[in-house]
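Researcher: Can you fold this with pyridoxal-5'-phosphate in place?
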Amino acid sequence: MSGHLVVPPVFNTGETEHLGLAGSIPVHLRQVCVREDVGVAQSDPRRTVPRTDVLMAHPDLVAAVARHGAATVKTAVRSAQSRARSGEIAAGDVVAAAREALPTRSTTLRPLLNATGVVVHTNIGRAPLSDAAVDAVVAAAAYVDVEYDIATGARARRGRGTLEALRSAVPAAGDALVVNNGAAALVLATTALAAGQDVLVSRGEMVEIGDGFRLPDLVASTGARLREVGTTNRTRLSDYAAALGPDTGCILKVHPSNFRVDGFTSAASVRELATLGAPVVVDIGSGLLRPDPMLPDEPDATTALADGATVVTASGDKLLGGPQAGLVLGEAATVERLRRHPLARAVRVDKLTLAALEATLRGPAPPVADYLHVDLDRLRSRTERLAAATGGEVVPVEGRVGGGGAPGLPLPGWAVALPEDCAKRLRRGETAVVARVERGRCLVDLRCVPPERDADVERAVLAARDVDHPSGA
Ligand SMILES: *Cc1c(COP(=O)(O)O)cnc(C)c1O
């Protein structure tokens, strides 16, 4: 192989197939002569390149078609053929070159290791699924009884197992509904309860949730009128009461999940809002179903419902640690009203999501929960091992929940500090590792790395550092 690489294209004729074996300078020189003496016609590499149909019948490529599809394999074959025609590779290497050009995965999405210490990171896919949830997705990928009763052969309630799991996880909810994402849950709730009417929302909760996406715009897009009450830092129950009227569709309470207002502040509680008589929609954001002592300021569905929320909306792929989904939990009659709204069909969730969500709710704790509640002694010893193996330095760091949960709450831990430019090489390495860059250092935080992948991180760091010390062992 390396023999082929060093040979300039013009030398590589059909006859020089075994150049790599000969691989000596005299052979190369002789071929320059051959080419000059005999001319292009006889050594024209185009004549020796096998035809597409011949190549596609090669057992390796037949197998590749089963995995990648004919179109992808044909594209790889054509590109290998044209490399052979130009003399860049030998005609006999076309099959191997086509095979190498095939993607290693059936998606362009690249798996990566999260060494940022940010547990729920929107840019890298928020929550990683548990093995149980992955199994469920694979099972659901085939024909399944998602909306079908096998016993009777009749149509059944879509995703009933998932809804049952959600109701048992939150007994305070009379009923549950699952839609595409948290934003869809909120749109559905405000549309069904307040289209053409007022939605009362505190000025302190008019939030942008990321990528320029603003909740007030979202609510306004449903045809509901947003009625702001109170001020940015203080909103009292009396502000809501003053705005309340026959045109009120619902009161909306939004958890400002990515920022915090400190100082002279006040807000009306769900319990207070529930006394006003209008339906209260509480967007808790992160999907915590029950209180978590580690996240004391993070609202949860059970508490909000116990406090009198009519419906709670949340995401499935933040602190719940499941697939992207929007959860609606609440009073049975109101959830039913949402379910029957025509918009519900447009934000309907697919079977893969239903499967992953059910496994997340019923199965073992998902990775997000493990990373959040990581054993700090174990994290420290894993970090020390990595530092010792790679010549980095153990430093204390503060991880983050990220992705719209527990703003400002630090997650104390440790990381291996490396020179800043390692971050780029770690990202681009064979196993992509995304580290955090902070104050001129590259910090490799193992909190969100599955412990069985520590060896991969170590290899990646050694490879990234190797560039600095090309001769070092
Ligand atoms: C994240 C978030 C949303 C949006 O949820 P998605 O699942 O991303 O659509 C809405 N409201 C709050 C408070 C959030 O934190």
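Model: Folded with pyridoxal-5'-phosphate in place. The chain has 21 helices and 14 strands.
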